Amino acid sequence: MRVSLIIAVYKDVQSLSLIIDALKRQTYKNFEVVVAEDGENVQMKEYVKNITELDIKHTTQEDIGVRKARSQNNGINASEGEYLIFIDRDCVPYTTFIEAHVA
Predict the structure, then answer these.
(1) pTM tops 0.85
(2) Which DSSP category does 90 fall into?
(3) In this structure, which CATH number among 3.90.550.10, 3.40.50.460, 2.102.10.10, 3.30.70.20 belongs to the domain 3-102?
């Protein structure tokens, strides 16, 4: 089963990098990552563009205040998985995180 992991982020590349490092070590491999950014941060765009080890998508929206739900909806629209998992920028998944969800 294809899984889409949607990460809600806002201007915090350092936190996202910790999550990405953890996702590279997942035991379940049939997943994509959707970075659902509430804003359009240049550093975030460059960081995501340079991630090559994962199947990754990046959605953005104009930064006009907190609109996390809309940002997550953008992530849903961009996702291709049959199963969606949502995390925030402060959640670093353990190695069997996706596998446990699928089970």
Answers:
(1) yes
(2) T
(3) 3.90.550.10
